[in-house]
């Protein structure tokens, strides 16, 4: 397993692989790897000839300085896991190589990035879009694998890949959950045992929404209200948003016809968590 730390070294390695005719799978992360990341890496290894894992805690996508400072960093454990999974390259650029002195460029993704996370974390997706474009330029992947838990992020990055004519495809991998239903996230390590239990009720709320729609309810506001009532019962929890959106444009829907996605953001025990579920009236 190679560990590369500069964009030039990463690009040169990827160019050699392309010349050999190898497809390149890419899993971008901020480290603190868990079973959700493992699922992405395993999918990449199953589909592509070689796999690149990036680890970079990107400060420009954090809208809260404390969140950036507290974000878990487990570099040695991450490298050990990557080697165990037989990842071909771990790309770990330094902040200085990603954002050298005088760097001033930023990429925005338009209206698809303005609702939900965009509303509650202004500037977040500009940071995500910019760093991922820089990573894509270095890695030159055939396929980029992303977790469905970050539903809006997947949609934003699909839009960027399409609009900026990147040759790679974007593949979403289903959310991996703990036994209690909590979506796996690096931030979960900051939850107390009691808050882990409380946070699992976000999944309960999503399931309640699914069941209401399955029973024939098509009014999105009715479903949102019922979902909020479930979350309101969670102690030490603050709801940021519950939204039902069209899966491609992420525009809010009033009536549920066909496939939509319900998205939730809530703060449990001081830790911000997001989750989502596809709803289908059919």
TrEMBL record:
Catalyses which reaction(s): (R)-pantoate + beta-alanine + ATP = (R)-pantothenate + AMP + diphosphate + H(+)
EC number from the UniProt entry: 6.3.2.1
Top-level EC class as recorded in UniProt: ligase
Signal peptide: none
Gene3D superfamilies in alphabetical order: HUPs (3.40.50.620), Pantoate-beta-alanine ligase, C-terminal domain (3.30.1300.10)
This protein's UniProt keywords: ATP-binding, Ligase, Nucleotide-binding, Pantothenate biosynthesis
Gene source species: freshwater metagenome
Classification via Pfam families: Pantoate_ligase
Associated pathway: Cofactor biosynthesis; (R)-pantothenate biosynthesis; (R)-pantothenate from (R)-pantoate and beta-alanine: step 1/1
PANTHER family named among the record's database cross-references: CYTIDYLATE KINASE/PANTOATE-BETA-ALANINE LIGASE, PANTOATE--BETA-ALANINE LIGASE
NCBIfam families assigned: cyt_tran_rel (TIGR00125), panC (TIGR00018)
CDD domains to which the protein is assigned, alphabetical: PanC
Family membership noted in the UniProt record: Belongs to the pantothenate synthetase family.
Keyword Ligase applies: yes
GO molecular function per UniProt: ATP binding; pantoate-beta-alanine ligase activity
Stored InterPro entries: Cyt_trans-like, Pantoate_ligase, Pantoate_ligase_C, Rossmann-like_a/b/a_fold
Protein name: pantoate--beta-alanine ligase (AMP-forming)
GO BP, sorted A to Z: pantothenate biosynthetic process
One GO cellular component term noted in the UniProt record for this chain: cytosol
């Amino acid at each position: 397993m190679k560990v590369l730390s500069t964009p030039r070294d990463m690009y040169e390695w990827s160019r050699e692989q392309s010349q050999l005719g190898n497809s390149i799978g890419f899993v971008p992360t901020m480290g603190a790897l868990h079973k959700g990341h493992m699922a992405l890496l395993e999918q990449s290894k199953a589909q592509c000839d070689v796999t690149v894992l990036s680890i970079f805690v990107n400060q420009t996508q954090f809208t809260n300085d404390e969140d950036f400072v507290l974000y878990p960093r487990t570099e040695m454990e991450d490298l050990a896991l990557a080697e165990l999974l037989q990842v071909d390259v771990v790309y770990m650029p330094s902040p200085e190589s990603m954002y050298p002195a005088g760097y001033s460029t930023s990429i925005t993704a338009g209206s698809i990035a303005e609702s939900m996370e965009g509303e509650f974390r202004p500037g977040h997706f500009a940071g995500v879009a910019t760093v991922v474009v820089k990573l894509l330029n270095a890695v030159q992947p055939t396929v980029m694998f992303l977790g469905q838990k970050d539903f809006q992020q997947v949609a934003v990055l699909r839009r960027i890949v399409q609009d900026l004519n990147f040759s790679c495809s974007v593949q979403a991998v289903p959310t991996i959950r703990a036994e209690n239903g909590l979506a796996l996230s690096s931030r979960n390590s900051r939850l107390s045992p009691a808050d882990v239990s409380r946070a699992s009720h976000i999944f309960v709320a999503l399931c309640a929404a699914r069941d209401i729609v399955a029973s024939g309810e098509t009014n999105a506001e009715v479903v949102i209200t019922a979902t909020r009532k479930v979350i309101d019962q969670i102690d030490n929890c603050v709801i940021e948003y519950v939204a039902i959106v069209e899966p491609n444009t992420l525009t809010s829907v009033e009536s549920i016809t066909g496939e939509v996605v319900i998205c939730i953001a809530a703060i449990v025990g001081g830790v911000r968590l997001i989750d989502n579920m596809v709803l289908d009236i059919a």
